[in-house]
Amino acid sequence: MKIDPNSSADLSAQIASAIRDAIVGGKLIVDERLPSEAELAEQFEVSRSTVREALKRLAAQSLIRTQRGAFGGAFVNRLSYEDAYRGHITTSTLLLGMNHVSFDTACEARFALERACAGLSAERRDADHLATMRAEIVRQAQPGLSDEAFCASDVAFHRALVDGADNPVMSYQLAGAVEAMQPLMNMITFTARNREEIVRLHELIADAAEARNGAAVSTALTELEGYTKTLAQSVFDARAKGQSDSAGTER
Amino acid sequence: MKIDPNSSADLSAQIASAIRDAIVGGKLIVDERLPSEAELAEQFEVSRSTVREALKRLAAQSLIRTQRGAFGGAFVNRLSYEDAYRGHITTSTLLLGMNHVSFDTACEARFALERACAGLSAERRDADHLATMRAEIVRQAQPGLSDEAFCASDVAFHRALVDGADNPVMSYQLAGAVEAMQPLMNMITFTARNREEIVRLHELIADAAEARNGAAVSTALTELEGYTKTLAQSVFDARAKGQSDSAGTER
DNA sequence: AATTTTCATTTGTCTGACATTTAAATGTCT
DNA sequence: AGACATTTAAATGTCAGACAAATGAAAATT
Questions:
Q1: Percent residues over pLDDT 90 in chain B
Q2: Domain over B82-250 is classified CATH 1.20.120.530
Q3: Phi, psi at B99, each rounded to 5°
Q4: Into which CATH architecture does domain B11-76 fall?
Q5: Cβ contact, residue pair B91, A88, below 8 Å
Q6: Rounded Cα distance, B247 and B251, in Å
């Protein structure tokens, strides 16, 4: 492992990169201990602070964990699904929030990917998944529910559907698409009539899942996609109209 | 923004968390400048080193960028698709590599998600996407190609298919599933006969995309999934047999 | 043998210093 | 007045050295 002290990049970034490559490339295996900060500083010919900054970068990506005390140090971390989940959702949320992705684009992606789970989920879902879906439907039908809680329950419902496919890789990949939609959905205010229709479609999905009918799940998802899009459209239209009205009175 | 100095967690992690929440929560907007390290140190009542470690954590997630010099500092970064891509692929690759996900599970997820793109891609793909697919097929048919290069071309082919859906959110989400499979695929040695069959299926996919026939793309993908799985199975079987043989002679 | 104490090691944090970069402010010349 | 060169202040990047806190191993004690 060697670095170029003349490069324009920060030394800590270069060092982090070198160690990251070693981990990703399999040269450092899970639970293996890295040299101590002092030793790394000597190896890379930098100060301990610089090494520490590099290690913090890796820790932020859950690539290493650190332990204090004698026989402590930095260890290559086994990346857990939970850690990966969290990071993936954060990144996806920011990506959607910062890049003015249209609601339709995000929505289209989400439902297309979710339909990819429909068949597998109908086939493999267990009683727990179904129970979760039913429970969330009940919650969604409660009258006093806030819009945020309604959206959160919506996410929980769909996550149960996705998890029903019993494929952790799919659950992980889908997490980004499903959860990152929540802030966008939160921009919508749902009328009682809207919620009724969404609950109806969720029931359709749950029924299809119960009957292990993947095609029906898929069809219901498509219908829900369409309804969500028109709902968002009407909300945005109303908002745009409100904007132009107030602009008209202001000037 | 306040932190708890009595918490078990590192101060730098707490500070990073606080700033991260502010960014994700929209309290800090894109391109906004954070206070200088010295000011942050004062606000959080920690030393500058601790603040720096926190900032490095955020930089590792591409949440901020730093600029030196007067009027420099840390700025909230607009998360680009490229940055998110890279991170997503790295994480997905590690996740698959470190958690002994079965080849079948990963393969199933990849093709299920890819089929989710089939319809949109057939509908929207432009001439470039098709040209890329054709070009990669030509490359894959070349006799001298190494297994690694063959796999890389395979990834490029499928990425073109996914990108054809013209939905950046899908491209981003799919990147993890498609690219992270490459190391797994690299464990397979492809005979000339294997490659022939894969090229044939790729041609089927390209033909279907050219004809804007999403259903045919989907069918071909399913066939390719099946072939890939049996191929991997035979390789693993052979390897297991070799293992037990050598184990038998060694002891 | 079990328990306690000591101890060396390692990370976490702080302080203070200097180098480097950068853009604004200032000065100078035409 | 405008173009160009110089200075300067502010900020990050890096370093060195120190101490605190944690932690498990080894030694000492009961």
A1: 78
A2: yes
A3: -115, 30
A4: Orthogonal Bundle (1.10)
A5: yes
A6: 6
The pLDDT value recorded for residue A6 is 66
SS3 A175: helix
Structure tokens at B235: 């390789």
A142 CB-to-strand D distance under 7 Å: no
Say how many CA atoms lie within 13 Å of B58 toward its Cβ: 27
Inter-chain CB proximity A58 and B60 less than 8 Å: yes
**Min Cα separation A249/chain B (Å):** 29
Q: Which nucleotides of D are covered by protein (CB under 7 A)?
A: 8-18, 21-25
What is the model's pLDDT at position A187? Answer: 87
pLDDT of residue A246: 58
B115 dihedral zone (left: phi>0; alpha: psi -120 to 50; beta) = alpha
ipTM, two decimals: 0.88
CA separation for the pair B195, A134 (Å, rounded): 47
DSSP B112-163: HHHHHHHHHHHHH--HHHHHHHHHHHHHHH-TT--HHHHHHHHHHHHHHHHH
At A67, the amino acid letter reads Q
Structure tokens at A106: 């995000």
A70 CA – C7 C1', rounded, Å: 10
Q: Where are the domains of chain B?
A: 11-76, 82-250
Residues in chain A: 251
Interatomic CA distance for residues A251 and A243, integer angstroms: 12
